[in-house]
Each structure stands twice: as structure tokens, then as C-alpha cells.
Design a protein that fits this description.
The chain is an alpha/beta fold and 401 residues long. The protein has 13 helices and twelve strands. The strands form three sheets. The protein has a seven-stranded mixed beta sheet, with helices on both faces. Strands 9-12-11 form a three-stranded antiparallel beta sheet. It has a two-stranded parallel sheet with strand order 1-10. The protein is globular.
Length: 401
């Protein structure tokens, strides 16, 4: 019996972050001392309040099917969070709880994209935005954000990219992989462009909102431009700021009609989210901001450590990330050279693969994020591992010929 994949999956690649992590795990299984900086996962424990709340929920028998759109208590906690931290007001039917932020992105695109619809994605971008859009028959339209602009989206670039087929603009700031942020002035300029394009929806993925550095604070587009609120889907979740990646709890707020459609998609895909995880999320959202602030300070110190070392290396440029927990250095100066092992570094993919094979450091090539000539390093690792990774990377660069 022959098996045929659906046409929408033809040519759909595996996300590069997962692929590089798999290669690193394979080497580790062979006994190689690999330092993996490929995945964006906090190295902090989940809040103990969340663990205890999930445990107690299990003891009291909160293990039945949950509502598809989320437990009312968690929706209420999310509504409070949006009001207190973002200045956004959402009713219960304007909030959806998903199986992580990725499911909410999937739901939104599945509910709204027809074949040929365009999704504008500032580059560098998180790998899943264009892949999910492609699965739905959409066309990803990258807008390159320059290193000299700190990888921020500029209004003129957005204006040039909008066409009558544009369906969505994705705004992921603080950004994965670059660490770029958008300040109020930047967002006001973007909002001015959007007012001239009333057919364009905005997906504001704010999962890294609490991880900003140097005294800067995240600002939500929906609070800067409340007149555009009926076109903005604001996505967030528990994974990054609360170190709860494995709990798989995301949440979003947006127009009731879109949320209803997204809930219908979710109903036929996964149904509701694990009840114990929802109980933990409620508890975590009620914890003091001091826990998040302590984590942010550690990430900022690690960022400073890695950036200072990268800037001292040959062939490397490095903008200062202002948020998230990644560094996105340029390695264009190393392209065309040959490694100590005899491999020619023809592009950033070859750079990342050779670095893993010869120096045993796992990173992700920038081309996976729509920005060639870069690599992404996660600083969600201990100081000791980051220092050793930098030593290996510098040695690798010095040995190029």
C-alpha cells in the first residue's frame, strides 16, 4: 500500500532549531561533550507555586475534560494580567487558552488564511511563522530588518510590503532570534501605516515581554493604537517569563469573532488544555513580579558576557539584544573560509554544522530565521557553559584559513 502526504506538506522543512538540537543530541549520545545553545528554553525551574497548585488540583480530582477555550478561572487571571500589565481590556469571549503559544498561532492562521493570502513577517523571524502560514496555503512575505537598525521593523519597509493580498502582519517583539524590541515611537509609526491598510490583521506575539534589558519596557501595540484593537490578536503564554515551557499553556486576547473561530479550530484539533497545567498557570500569574525580575537580571548579565566576548572575536559583528535571551551575531566575515577540519564555510548553515562537528557547540543558522550570514545563540545556559562555548567558538574562528 502506498502512502501519499497531503500537498500542503510537500517541501515543508523541519524547523531548524529542532533539527540542530537533534544533531547535538545524536553527538551527545556518542559520548561527545556538546554544548547546545540551539533551543530557546529557560534554564530556571518553574515557580513552586505553580507546581503546588497543579498537585493540589490533581488531589482534588480536577482531572476531567476542561472547556475548549480555557477554564473560567484562568481566563479571569489572563484578563487581569492584560489589564494590569498591558493596559488591555478583554472580555471572556475575547480570550482563548491554547496548548502553548504555537497552537494559538496555528489556530489563528487556520481560521483566517486562504490560499494565496500573504503574511508579512519581519526578518529575522521565529521559524514557525512562515511554516504554519505555508501549511495553510499562505505566502510568507519577509521584510528584512537590518542589524544597524537593531533589527527593528521600520515603517517604510512595512508600507512597501503591503499588498491587497496581505492578510496578516506578525509582530514578534521582543524578538526571537535577534532580541530586538519596538519602543513606543516605533509602534506609533507602524500603527500609522496600518491605518492606511484596514484589511491587514496584526498578530502581536509578546511571549518575551517580561525579558527586556537596560531599563527598557515592553509596550503592546494594542495599547499604543487602541483604534486598531479590532484587528490585533495579542498572544502570550507561560513558557518564557515563567520558565514553564513543558506545561504548554498559551493565551491570547483579540476580537470575539476571531477568538470564536480559533476556538472552533481548537475544538476539532486538541480540545481543551490540561487541567493541571491550567491550575499551575493561574498560580504562576499570581506570583510577584520579583521572580521574573530576578530571572531577567540573570539573562541580562549573561547577554553582556556573551556579547562582550563575541565583539572581541575575528569575523564577527554583534548588535546588542535589548530583550529575550538570544544573541544574533553576524558571521559574514567567516564565509568563504576553510575550517581546521578542511570544510569550506560556504554559508551560515555550513558554519553552524561545522561548528557543531569540530568545536562541539550547537547553534542555529540565521538563514533559518530569514537572515543569512548570522547565527543564533541562546544565553539560557549557565555562565560556565556560555564561557566555554565562547572559548570554543573563538578557537574555531581563529583556526579558519
Amino acid at each position: 500500500m502506498s502512502f501519499r502526504l497531503a500537498q500542503r506538506l510537500q517541501g515543508l522543512p523541519q524547523p531548524a532549531t529542532i533539527a540542530m538540537s537533534a544533531k547535538a543530541r545524536a553527538l551527545k549520545a556518542q559520548g561527545v561533550d556538546v554544548i547546545s545553545l540551539a533551543l530557546g528554553e529557560p534554564d530556571f525551574p518553574s515557580p513552586p507555586e505553580a507546581v503546588e497548585a497543579a498537585y493540589q488540583a490533581g488531589l482534588r480530582g480536577d482531572t476531567k475534560y476542561p472547556p475548549v477555550g480555557g477554564q473560567p478561572a484562568l481566563k479571569a487571571a489572563v484578563a487581569r494580567k492584560f489589564i494590569e500589565e498591558n493596559g488591555l481590556s478583554y472580555a471572556p469571549d475575547e480570550i482563548l487558552i491554547g496548548n502553548g503559544g504555537k497552537q494559538l498561532i496555528y489556530n489563528a492562521f487556520a481560521a483566517s488564511i486562504d490560499p494565496g493570502d500573504e503574511v508579512i513577517v519581519p526578518a529575522p523571524y521565529w521559524v514557525s511563522y512562515p511554516l504554519i502560514a505555508q501549511m495553510m496555503g499562505g505566502v510568507s512575505v519577509p521584510v528584512v530588518c537590518l542589524e544597524q537598525d537593531k533589527f527593528r521593523l521600520r515603517a517604510e519597509g512595512l508600507r512597501r510590503a503591503i499588498t491587497p493580498r496581505t492578510r496578516w502582519l506578525v509582530l514578534n517583539f521582543p524578538n526571537n532570534p535577534s532580541g530586538a524590541i519596538m519602543e513606543r515611537d516605533d509602534l506609533e509609526a507602524i500603527a500609522a501605516v496600518l491605518r492606511d491598510a484596514p484589511h491587514v490583521m496584526v498578530m502581536a506575539d509578546e511571549i518575551y515581554e517580561h525579558l527586556t534589558f537596560d531599563g527598557k519596557a515592553h509596550v503592546s501595540l494594542a495599547s499604543v493604537a487602541p483604534d486598531l484593537g479590532d484587528r490585533i490578536l495579542t498572544i502570550n503564554g507561560m513558557a518564557k517569563a515563567y520558565a514553564m515551557t513543558g506545561w504548554r499553556v498559551g493565551f491570547c486576547g483579540g476580537p470575539a469573532a476571531l477568538i470564536k473561530a480559533m476556538t472552533s479550530i481548537q475544538s476539532n484539533a486538541t480540545s481543551g488544555i490540561c487541567t493541571l497545567a491550567q491550575a499551575g498557570a493561574i498560580a504562576a500569574l499570581g506570583t510577584p513580579a520579583s521572580g521574573r525580575d530576578a530571572m531577567r537580571k540573570v539573562y541580562q548579565a549573561r547577554r553582556d558576557l556573551v556579547v562582550s566576548r563575541l565583539r572581541a572575536m575575528p569575523f564577527v559583528t554583534c548588535a546588542m539584544p535589548e530583550g529575550a535571551f538570544y544573541v544574533f551575531p553576524g558571521i559574514a566575515g567567516a564565509l568563504g573560509k576553510t575550517s581546521m577540519g578542511g570544510r569550506r564555510i560556504v554559508d551560515d548553515v555550513a558554519f553552524a554544522e561545522t561548528l557543531l562537528e569540530e568545536a562541539h557547540v550547537s547553534v542555529v543558522p540565521g538563514s533559518a530565521f530569514g537572515q543569512m550570514g548570522h547565527i543564533r545563540l541562546s544565553v539560557a545556559a549557565s555562565d560556565e557553559l556560555l564561557v566555554e562555548a565562547c572559548i570554543r567558538l573563538e578557537r574555531f574562528l581563529l583556526e579558519l584559513s
